[in-house]
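Our consortium's second objective concerns turning raw sequence data into structural hypotheses that experimental partners can test. To show how far this objective has progressed, the report includes one record in full. It was chosen at random from the queue rather than selected for favorable results. The single chain below, 295 residues long, was entered without modification.
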Amino acid sequence: MRMSTWIRQHVAALRALLVLTAITGIAYPLAVFAVAQVPGLHDKAEGSLITSEGRLVGSSLIGQSFTDADGNALARYFQSRPSAAGDGYDPLSTAASNLGPESVVDILAADPAEVKLSLLSTVCSRSKAIGDREGVDGRRPFCTDDGLGAVLSVIGPRDADGRISRPTRVVSINQACPTTPFLTTYLGVAVTCAEPGQDYSTGLIVPVFGNASTDTAVPADAVTASGSGLDPHISPEYADIQVARIANARGITTDQVRELVETHTRRRTLGFLGEPRVNVVELNLDLDRQYPIHG
């Protein structure tokens, strides 16, 4: 009697296993695959792949770098936002830099390969480079004119509140010697450059706002990477400051370039979600199709 009950229970369990396997392991995947072949959904299901002249050139969901072998921006293309994914836009290494707003002090070393920039100096250097490339003012608050974080280490005795009213030494800790510091004096003390390898952490770390406008011409997405490192979009503001360079490189008018940018600009989803955005990959492909560079 007991053996008969045991057998019935196990036969019922086996039937349930077979039925659920057929539904969830066969029928459901086939149904999802079939729905994915519906016109309008097929491209999205296949990864939103982009082809040009029958050749696979990328995905509309994954950004690309438009630079030469040395990492320099190609003048004829719109530039994407920075990427911290591997060597740039690597889907197998999707990641952010994991640096936050308190990252303001660089690690200086005699060997340039061992220098590690803080988030602040990374933003400052990118903004200066973009400003120089696009012919706009790349200065930002808390940045030096040479594109580093404007940060001082103020050394001296502290009061009960941790403040230093009479410093004995002030160092521009992100500007390695023999660079001339961005400030001549601070609280009456001459500012000196930083010696690589020295520890200035005993001082009070003071970021200096400077005289740059908060309304900088170089937008935030041009100098910071996305959380995934794969974002294919830039802001219309970043696209706009690149228009003159693109027009000059391709021998066309700025109006022609702006018309293409407008075509590839997507507004807020449902009118209120997200921000307006421009797909760089699709825009550059359209540039090559409509205004190719010969020779």
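The partners drew two points from this record. The chain has a mean pLDDT of 89. The first helix runs from residue 2 to 36. Both points have been shared with the crystallography group to help prioritize constructs.
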